[in-house]
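A note from the maintainers: we've had questions about how concatenated examples are separated. There is no special marker in the raw files; a new sequence line simply starts the next protein. For clarity in this README we add a label.
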Amino acid sequence: MADPRLLRGGDDADRGQKPERRLYNPYQDLHVPSRALYDLPTAPEFLFQEEAVAQRRSWGENLTYYTGIGYLSGAAAGATLGLHRAISAAEPGDTLKIRINRVLNSAGQDGRRIGNRLGVIGLLYAGLESGMVALRDTDDWINSVAAGLGTGTLYKAANGPRSAAVAGAIGGLTVGAAVAGKQVLKRYLPI
């Protein structure tokens, strides 16, 4: 039979004091300071040394990133444009239900249309840039600008050679400006 003092809390319960409690430490048998378990490195850890040397996303990550960013930014811009269009097209006799329906339809239609266009542009750019890196076996600004030129050209190729050339030039200039802006930011802003 168990000791009745243990069931009541021992001698401390007899004197009116609370029994002392010991916190459970699951790491006590490991002989490792528990603080060392939670001091995690802030730099990324790699399985192979080759991964640590390459400071670049893989082609699949690139594809997902540019396509996703393009679609989401296009959908947000299109929804904003659709909202503005719907609000400006409102007539004085419209009920609240009709106005809400017009806003939802217009924002959804424009968001989907522009989001799909920018998603395709991101897909083309990511594929061309990854192909240029694999082809040239180097990663520099030339790959990005060439991918911008190719993306604009391919995107508007069905509209004719003049339209494709203009779109290619716009794509190359846009990517060139983005690369130059990124270098300026790296140089003058401590990030």
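[label: protein 2]
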Amino acid sequence: MRVPIPHDIGKEEVRRRLHARSHEIGQFVPGGVADVQTAWPNEDRMDLSVKAMGQGIDGSVIIEDAQVIFEVNLPPALSFVEPMVASAIRQQGQKLIAPK
């Protein structure tokens, strides 16, 4: 699943905000309890591994000039929740890159 979020703040500022707020991602998972691991294989990509409620989900955040793309690999057993997950990513993704 790919969820693009447009921005007009420049890649450098998106990078700075994601670095500063990546620790908040676990709070966006229902129940607020999730183990989130992040890694930056390059300056325009943050990889994620989220474990919560007995499930593991991997994904990435790709920073482009005018949008941030959240890519999430939902397990087949969770494909029915894809619309809800996409909606949550749009809402919470905006918060991650918004000014504080």
